[in-house]
Amino acid sequence: MKSITAKETLDIISKQWCNSQDFSILSNTGKNKTLKLMKDLRIRLEKDNYFLPSNVLPMDKVVEYLDLNISYLNQVKDL
Q: Using an 8 Å Cβ cutoff, are 12 and 25 in contact?
């Protein structure tokens, strides 16, 4: 998998919705693992009474699920 810069990561997480391609990039996983993780998160969100469109997840929940450190990314994006 190709690693991405902090700026590229911030560009991706600035979207409202996360599709499987974005999730794969952010989690640095392949297709099968990405779909498994997305399904797990979707199940968790639906248990919390979220109504979700097909094939996308809310980006704020993805950032929380993947435990991405946004403040750190903002600090190093210009390095």
A: yes
